[in-house]
């Protein structure tokens, strides 16, 4: 996919930013294998993305070269509460500032809210976007409110019943009581 502004798979960052170019498109999520490893199901959805270059004059210093990357994708994940399927919207909005050397990038990155990187000869926007989407994944995916289906066999406490009692009238053993019983049963545990 070659467009005005360059090839997004081998972008000349300096030229792209210097001329304030913009690229956008939709890439299939199926083409992002590392991200897809986190999916609960296969999807034929895509990720809408846009990249824009900026070249700002800075008094007393070299011009600032930066790239803004925005993206949004709806992905299928596994809820860690109910273990069912859920859809999560991943949103990426990042600014990358490019400098001439790795040493300068390390020095400036500590004080900058933006990511500071050394200027590459070519940049693969597809790979960068996949990295950013992976970072946007929730650590523990779960339905935002209540799960549509609770786990099979999980007994929910009913309001109004005493702690440990269930609707069927059975009482759940308290975890520490079970440990105490185990400890009493061992010889030499006194």
Tally of distinct domains: 2
Assembly status: single chain
List segments where confidence is low: pLDDT < 50 over at least 5 consecutive residues: none
End-to-end Cα distance, whole Å, is 74 Å
Percent of residues in helical segments? Answer: 10-25%
> What proportion strand?
25-35%
Strand order of the main beta sheet, please?
A: 1-2-3-4-5
Number of strands: 5
- Roughly how many Å is the radius of gyration? 26 Å
> Looking at the structure, what is the overall shape?
elongated
What is the arithmetic mean of pLDDT? 82
Largest sheet: 5 strands, mixed
Structural category: alpha+beta
SS element count, helices: 5
SSE string: HEHEEEHEHH
Topology readout:
Elements: H1 13-18, E1 22-28, H2 33-36, E2 46-56, E3 64-78, E4 85-99, H3 102-109, E5 115-118, H4 125-136, H5 175-185
Parallel strand pairs: 4-5
Antiparallel strand pairs: 1-2, 2-3, 3-4
Provide a descriptive summary of the structure in words.
This protein is α+β, with helices and mostly antiparallel strands and 190 residues long. The protein has helices spanning 13-18, 33-36, 102-109, 125-136, 175-185; strands at residues 22-28, 46-56, 64-78, 85-99, 115-118. The protein has two domains: 13-136, no CATH class; 155-190, no CATH class. A five-stranded mixed sheet has the order 1-2-3-4-5. The mean pLDDT is 82.
